[in-house]
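Researcher: Last one for today. Full complex below.
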Amino acid sequence: MNALLTVDNLTVRAGADPATRILDGVSLTIHEGEVLALVGESGSGKSMTALALIRLLPAPLVAEAGALTVAGEDLLAAGERRMNAIRGGTIGMLFQQPKRMLDPTATVGAHVAEPLRRFGRLSRAAARRATVELLADVGIPEPRRRARAYAHQLSGGIAQRVMIATALAGQPRLLIADEPTTALDATVEAQILRLIAAKKAELGMSVLFISHDLRVVSAIADRIAVMYAGRIVEQGPAAELLAAPQHPYTRALVECSLLRPDEHGELYAIPGHAGPALSLTAGCRFQPRCAASHAARLEHQCAAAEPELAFSGGGSADHTTRCWVASPQAAPSHAAQPKEQV
Amino acid sequence: MTFLVKRLMVLAVTLFVVSFVVFLIPYLTPGDPARKILRARVGDLDADPEALAGLRETYGLDRPLLVQYGDWLGGALRGDLGLSYTSRTPVVDMLGGALTVTAVLAISTLLLALLVAVPLGSLAAVRRGTPVDTAITTVTQAFVAVPEYWLAPVLVLVFSLQLGVLPSAGWEGPASMVLPCLTLALRPMSYFTQVTRASMIDVLGSPHITAARARGLGFGATMLRHGVRNALLPVLTLFSLWLAGLLGGSVVVEVIFSIPGMGRLLYESVVNNDVPAIQAGIVSLVGLAVLITTLTDVVHAWVNPTVRAPHVSG
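Model: Here's the assembly. Have a good evening.
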């Protein structure tokens, strides 16, 4: 399989201050036809990653990367005109809250026809026909009537289908779906997930699927990258990562997603909260909330230096973890010898 | 188009109510109408009883109020608003001329204001927080406080007396419109600029703009197709309020530039106690204001589908 998207060492800062690393050294690869899920809690930098990929970060934020390549094209070297062809063309985007992503003064049909006319170079009439076909194709009933509707007349599920039709209109090689089902009912969520999976299989797209919900991700992802405070902390094949999570944070996420009450009838919650990415220490970012570090008596080492993303032993070779506890062989020599896994 | 029909019915009812109230006003002020007419015409304070009786007869002032109103309303519906007490010419003719002049002045003024304000406000919004934005915001805020009776003489001084390029008064040809329009446009232009800026900032931050950029629309194209239309909704409302206000005529500007508009007509009618002219003037202004509001609603519905189209989910 060839890599469709390569992100190497993507860093996002607020302004010129080097201390404000909102995203820090994020490296991702998505192969052709693959679904990579980016998982983490709110504020961990998932959406920031998506916007940085299409180079649409809001004003004070600045992105830097060693490499940013999509379908063999270097996005760092692309001019604004070329970027406009890549956005909506090579890369399609889905967002949370689909109704707010539609212009309230433009019809559904106008949204879908826009990329059709631009990328497909269709005439007005041809674009109108293609729009109705696309709307029908993403499972919208009465597509002819819906094409004349406005955002406020749609349910969230239909609006997300419209967004999918709009994203597919440019025949993208990569679909970036940023929490596409978070604002939807559970039943609608399942439908939208099935639709994305079906379109991915039909069109051979790759998907970067961003979510905070491991249960949603498990239904669609080939591989999973877990993000914490602007860092990728674990990455690997979906089934393996879910069955045998290595990083204490991933374990905690898996535990949360099970919705399994303990003996007191309480659901599991990760203690503490994610600190702001602005107040970084030298050590592992999860250390202040990490029970494993405490149990393994590695607090000193975990707080002193941040581990690399490394093979953590067991499982496939491309399953990597950023943890002193899980990857003992990665520990620097001057640190205390860590114990076996907890 | 039931929306429009409903609106027009509201318009008719409003006009009916307003006309009655306006008709009553001169009768609520103390004094005998016949005496007022005579005083308006000849300045005679010690009126001859026979002359008064004659006037009552001519204008039907001794009939019951409701009969007089019915008579007046019937005439108004046929386009007959009576004779002016002072000039004894049909009020309709006086009003028609003045209203046309004022309408031309008001509409050119506001179009000028809009033409400057929308690009200026948008520029300030796009360059938010930069010196450009600060300059635009500060200057337009200052402009709001510039009074017309100061600005008009200054403009006359510069363009008519010093440079000699524009007439200082009168209402003949486009050149004579320039200074009155500039004088009147300064304040609405400042308000429009600030409202455009605020609503443009709102729109720039809205998610559908990000989505449009992510579809590959460039910044300019996104603004044109998905920004301006949304941003102009509040400006549209403000525009209609100003239009209704300016149609009443600006006494200050019309007097300074000797423009035969509504402001001067109404002012003189009130001074002369010319009741038919006052009545007709006020009713037509209120009617126009309601008509403009109605038209604004129609335009609003056209621009903003959430007003027009029913909310259905599913």
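Confidence is low (pLDDT under 50) at residues 330-342 of chain A. The longest strand of chain A covers residues 3-14.
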